Structures are given as structure tokens and as C-alpha cells.
Amino acid sequence: MNQLYNLNFKLNEMQDDPTLFTTLKGHKDTITALSFHPGLKSIASSANDGVVSVWQLKQPRKVYRFMGHKGQVSDVQFSPNGLLIASFEGSSVSIKAHSAPVRSVQFSCDGQLLVSSSDDKSVKVWSVNDRKFQYGFQHTNWVRSAVFSQDVRLIASGGDDRAVIIWDCDSKKEAQRYNEHIGVVYKVQFSPDSTILGSCSHDKKLKLFDVRSKRVIQHYDAHADSVLDLKFHPSGQFAMTSGADSKVKVWDLRMGKLAYTLYGHNGQATTCAFSNHGDYFATGGSDSMILVWNTNWVCSGQESLDEKPKQVKSKPTQQSLTQGQQQSSQQKENVQQTNSQLPKQKETVLYSNADNSLHKKSEFNQSVQLQKEDVPAEVITQLDNISGQLELITRTLQALEQRVSNNEQQICRLNLALTRDFERSEQIQNQIYDLRPLEEQVQDQDEEENVNYIKFHRAANN
């Protein structure tokens, strides 16, 4: 069990794991989409409560709410310059876009065009300045997602017809079609250089297509339930998915494996988004919560939300320097000794309680770092292993309890369905019993009027 889910980490690897930055509360229904401001000033969110919210990420954290929609808001996005926000529901006051609910919306990289997808089976492109329709494409069923490529020469779309289609914006024709999914395609997304197209589906799969060679290059059994959203890291080296199994997963595309699994939502993890440079990411769920995370594993150094207090600089004395050097050398020896005793970790599993508290794993990190001089190192190592095993058992029990509750709900649904079927069968049997006397009377009448019936047909033939 320890080999599969080892929760011991190297101290030099702990700083590379994502950490929860803040939790945003205010929506009253499922979060449907998230979008970071290009300058990391704020984050926009849309939800099924019909509200579009813009949350300031720096202090003082204010929230602005837009109540212009009359129904559920399915998507929201900042324009590339951060001056506009596009959001769509079934019908829009600004742009009378589609004849059915709009599922997705995205700006082109230059901010001049807008692409939308809808349940009217169409993908439409609009000019932002005059808000006029430019051209469109047609699916055979509802379209859940449509996105521009980086150079605005291609559009990818996917939907309920299970097809992922790449459209040529110049010729206005279909360029490539992929029929790899066996379920509804919820999201399509181009990589930052537009050489890879990703798609996620109701069939629990994540698939990556090479746009140039027109073939599948990576395939992942991503989640235990539907994969609802997909985003590429700006570096193009990682992808993030959110699923109906309440998990958010980060995939290392270079190594072709799962890098992180994050727990924080009570219910489906419906959407996710990276910031412009990828130093932060956010997730939203059916619990109406928005979790903002520090990425940590890749940092551009161009984004920061930490507001550290100013420190007064003072010149250190020679005695303090000597004491500091001795303490640092002792700490290095302790760290090296602990690192040599801790095994390597293949996959990091992170947990958050969604209440803006400290990461559970950070508590374990602190317990690893704390050492007393009067306690042997072997005893400390054994205690740390026991602590890690106890945490593992606790989390495993929590997961089993969740599965048991899910199974109980499914059993209740099956029992209800069986009860309804049994009642229907009884009603049908009663109807059959009630009809038997009528059938006997009809047979008696047929025997009495048999001659007339035959005569009638003969007369008709004559």
C-alpha cells in the first residue's frame, strides 16, 4: 500500500507542489467558467445563478457582480487587452447570437473576433467592434465548445455528435475531423503554439491530437467520471483537467503521465483556468466555490499576488554572522540526513479543505522539518513514517466512505426504479384481467355474427 500511495516527500521537492492561495465564495449555484485578467488584477466567473462576478485578487479584495443575464450563464472570458468581458446565456441583449442556449465563447488572440458555440448545432464568428456576424460552421448536434488557434487561421469545435472538427477560417470549410470519442465532447483546446489540439469527453478520456500529422499522439484515462474542462499551461508542457469525480488533475505532457491530483471541491469540479503566465490557476465546482492556487511547479516570475510587508534592513554584526553560519550548517546536515531517509515520490496527491486553511500536506512538511536534538534520528524517521501511514489510512477511509455513499445512492435509485416497474407490471396485469370478460363477450358475439361478417366481405368482393 505504501508503494502505491506513499505520502513521504523529499524536502527539496515540497516547494514545487501547488498550494491553495485563496477561496472565493459568493455564487449560489454551479460555477460554469473562469477567466483570469491578463494582468492578474482579477478573475471573472460565471455560474448557473445567472451572475457574472469579477473578483479582485489583490487587497482589498472586492467583487463586482453583473446581473444582466436572465438565465444560466454558460461561459465568460476576458478580452486579450482586459477591457472587455464576454459572457453568454441562452439569449444575449448585446448580440442576438443563436436560436438556442450558447455553450462557449472565446476571443481571438488579437481581440478582433469572437467565436461562439450553441445548442442550435452551429459555430459562429463575430466581429467585436461592430458585433456583426462574419461566418459560421455547422455540426449535426449540439456544440459544446469552440476555440480559435493562436494565428486565428483555424477553429476547433466539439459537441454532442462526439466529433472533434478543425475548420479552416480562410476557405470556410472542414479541414479535419476526429471521431475518437465515444461520448459527448465537453471541451476542445489548442496548445499555446497551436500544434496540439486537446479534447475531453463524457467517456472519461483526455485525447491530444497533432494538428500537423492529423493523428492522436497521447491518450489518457483521465477521470473516474466525465471530464468537464481542459486547459493548457502557457508553457505548453502541462495540461489541467477537471472532472465530475470532483478531482482536478495536472498532466505532464513531456513525460506522458499524471503529475498532480488535487482535491478541494464537494461535488463536481466543473471548470479550471490558468493565469496568463501560468503562475496561478483556479478551479470551480458545483459547490459554488472558486479555489485559486499557486502553481509553484513552474514559475515565470512575472506574476505575484503576495503582498509582503516591508522589512527594515540592518547591518549584521560579526557575532550574528558566525552564529547564523553555524545554524545554517546544522540545518543543512539535518536536511541532508532526512532527505537520504525519505523515498522518492512518483505522483503527488494534494488535498485542500476549501476553507482557506493550510494545506494538509504542509502540516506533514512541518512535522518532517521539526527535529529535536535529544531524539535519535531513527526514532524520528519511524515516527514520520507512522504519521504518513496514519494520514494515508485516514484519507483512504474517507475515499471509501465517499464510494460507499455513492453506492448507497445508486442502490436507492435502483430500488425506486424496480418499485416503479413492479407497480407498472401490476397495473398491466390488472388491465389484462379486466379485459378477459370483454374478450369472452366479443368472442361470443363473433360466433353469433360470424355468418354476417362473412357475408359482408363477400358482398364487398362482389
From TrEMBL:
The WD repeat units are at 24-65, 95-136, 136-177, 178-219, 220-261, 262-294
The superkingdom of the source organism is Eukaryota
Q: Which CDD domains match?
A: WD40
Q: What spans are recorded as compositionally biased (Low complexity)?
A: 317-338
- Protein's UniProt keywords contain Cytoplasm: no
Note the coiled coil stretches, chain numbering: 383-410
InterPro entries per UniProt: WD40/YVTN_repeat-like_dom_sf (IPR015943), WD40_PAC1 (IPR020472), WD40_repeat_CS (IPR019775), WD40_repeat_dom_sf (IPR036322), WD40_rpt (IPR001680), WDR55/POC1 (IPR050505)
SMART domains associated with the record? WD40
State the residue spans of region: Disordered: 305-346
Alphabetical keyword list = Coiled coil, Repeat, WD repeat
Key word Hydrolase present:
no
PANTHER family assigned: POC1 CENTRIOLAR PROTEIN HOMOLOG, WD REPEAT-CONTAINING PROTEIN 55
Protein name in the entry: Uncharacterized protein
Q: Which organism is it from?
A: Paramecium tetraurelia
